[in-house]
Design a protein that fits this description.
With about 525 residues, the protein is an alpha/beta fold. Helix content is about 25%, strand content about 25%. The protein has helices at about 100-105, 120-130, 135-145, 160-175, 200-220, 245-255, 280-295, 310-315, 320-330, 350-355, 375-385, 435-440; strands at about 1-5, 10-15, 35-40, 55-60, 70-80, 110-115, 130-135, 180-185, 225-230, 260-265, 305-310, 335-340, 390-395, 400-405, 415-420, 450-460, 465-475, 495-500, 505-510, 515-525.
Length: about 525
């Protein structure tokens, strides 16, 4: 276990798990311009820790952003491999009956996490588009029981739960609705998941996974089943109804070969620190999960699945959305789907998960129910279509800033630069003011969220003196009803610059607001 402590803040910045034989580990979420101290110690499978070794002070620097002013660097000379759009999944969000299919083509989902409400036409469309799917089996069980006024609690009748789960697999196979992954229970650790007054024990929850696993495999031995889809990254939390370590241990004890270890990244986690608010700890969580499954006997082949990502209090902000997606893009997670949150200021009545979040063509809140784009729609569109080619290194010298960038074969660069210092309670209905206030106090965050001029430093593989054209377009957070036609913003920066002898070009992004995402294009002049 490697813990990185922020010396100035006197807090743990993050921690990450290395493999048993590793002699080095990459910590992806530290920030240049801050000073850290590393602590390293061995941890046995039972959770007992050995003696820690502690490093001296480590002052991080970025050669492209050496000054103290707010700075974001993009180095096209450090390439990370093909852009995969790993974070391009949706948690429902569209269907053939309510969504224009050209919008599905535009957003190009890589995953669809669906429930019992998905209609046959939508299943057919997902097969046609070769979209990988996860089916939430608990939604099928719940609707079947509620239609009969029967208990939705599996342990009230294990035999019925097993037989109905097997029937579900048979019925869906007959309809041609066979998902890539079967998800047994969503958020079993959430109060109310089994009914408002039901407080399940860990034994009951784990037994549910065993019964459902065996029932699904009895019908389809090749089925890929994932679990436990917790509300956050809770690794070893004895006080919680269930955690990831106990799930792995139970799978090993019963030789249940789950295909994926699943959890949510919605800003809730067991290793709570303020860095989780910006999504900076996601990579550490995926690394910890990978080490955990390698140590398993039954789940060595399991993949990390982030079944929901982006908390509600960041989902309505362009900077929040792109900031969180950037932190998950390079983690190595297999499936990533957006969380379902109500579209900001959407007056449409009805159940949140059907009308304003996961259905009615809202793409998990990227669009209003009147089908107007919200503030996050176009930035997400640029994530899908503009960021293509090869991923390159991006570094922000402030917490609360992040981004992604790619370079094309002709050398042109595309980037999304995100600022999400706080959750903007003034424009985001899902942002608690207490969270906003707490974030303003974090070291390195601009007090009050003042607009800032930001240096954008580019390292280009071009000869000295070559000319490039740089365009930068802001996407702002707002607080409106999205009732008028969307007006596409235009570049506020459009200038030609010459590459310096060291391959660098710098410009200023003026007046970057908290919650902004900026699209940056670098083109041959």
């Amino acid at each position: 276990m490697v813990e990185i402590d922020d010396v100035g803040a006197n807090k743990a910045a993050t921690h990450i798990t290395a493999c048993v034989t590793c002699t080095s580990v990459t910590v992806p979420d530290a920030v240049p311009g801050r000073t850290y101290q590393a602590r390293v110690w061995p941890v046995a499978r039972d959770g007992s820790a050995g003696v820690a070794a502690t490093s001296g002070a480590i002052a991080l620097t970025d050669p492209l952003c050496a000054s103290a002013q707010p700075c974001f660097s993009i180095d096209t000379r450090q390439q990370l491999g093909p852009m995969t759009h790993t974070a391009g999944g949706f948690n429902g969000g569209w269907d053939v009956l309510t969504t224009e299919l050209n919008m599905v083509s535009a957003l190009a989902p890589t995953w669809a996490r669906v429930d019992v409400h998905a209609d046959p036409a939508t299943w057919a469309e997902m097969r046609l588009r070769n979209i990988s799917t996860t089916f939430m089996a608990d939604s099928w069980w719940r609707t079947q029981r509620q239609a009969r006024n029967e208990s939705i609690v599996p342990w009230d009748n294990w035999a019925l739960y097993a037989s109905e789960t097997s029937r579900m697999v048979r019925d869906m196979a007959a309809l041609g609705e066979v998902p890539t992954y079967w998800e047994i229970q969503n958020e079993p650790d959430m109060p109310g998941a089994y009914g408002a007054s039901i407080a399940p024990t860990r034994t009951q929850i784990l037994q549910q996974f065993k019964v459902a696993y065996q029932a699904i495999k009895a019908v389809n031995p090749d089925a890929k089943i994932i679990g436990p889809s917790l509300t956050g990254f809770y690794w070893n939390e004895p006080s919680r109804p269930i955690d990831l370590q106990s799930f792995l241990d139970f799978a090993d004890a019963n030789q249940l070969q789950f295909a994926g270890l699943a959890w949510h990244e919605d800003g809730a986690e067991g290793d709570v620190d303020m860095w989780s608010v910006w999504g900076r700890t996601i990579a550490s969580h995926v690394a910890r999960a990978k080490v955990g499954v390698v140590a398993s006997t039954a789940m060595k082949a399991a993949v990390p699945v982030v079944s929901e990502v982006v908390p509600g209090w960041m989902s309505g902000l362009p900077g929040g959305m792109i900031g969180w997606l950037s932190h998950i893009e390079n983690t190595g997670a297999t499936q990533v789907s957006l969380s379902c949150w109500p579209t900001p200021n959407d007056p449409m009545p009805g159940d949140m998960n059907v009308r304003t979040a996961c259905g009615s063509g809202t793409f998990d809140g990227l669009r209003h129910s009147n089908h107007q784009p919200t503030d996050t729609f176009v930035p997400h569109l640029h994530y899908t279509w503009t960021l293509t080619g090869t991923k390159v290194t991006t570094v922000a010298n402030r917490p609360g800033w992040a981004g992604m960038a790619t370079v094309a074969p002709d050398g042109s660069v595309a980037a999304l630069v995100a600022r999400n210092d706080t959750c903007r309670s003034d424009v985001n209905p899902l942002c608690p003011k207490a969270t906003d206030d707490a974030l303003h106090k974090w070291p390195g965050v601009a007090a009050g969220g003042a607009n800032l001029d930001v240096r954008l430093s580019l390292g280009l593989a071009r000869t000295a003196g070559a000319s490039v054209r740089i365009q930068a377009t802001p996407f702002h957070a707002s607080n409106n009803t999205f009732s008028t036609p969307y007006v596409m913003p235009t570049p506020v920066v459009d200038q030609t610059a010459k590459v310096a002898s060291n391959g660098l070009v710098s410009i200023t992004l003026p007046g970057v607001a908290d919650g902004d995402t900026w699209l940056v294009r670098v083109l041959p002049a």
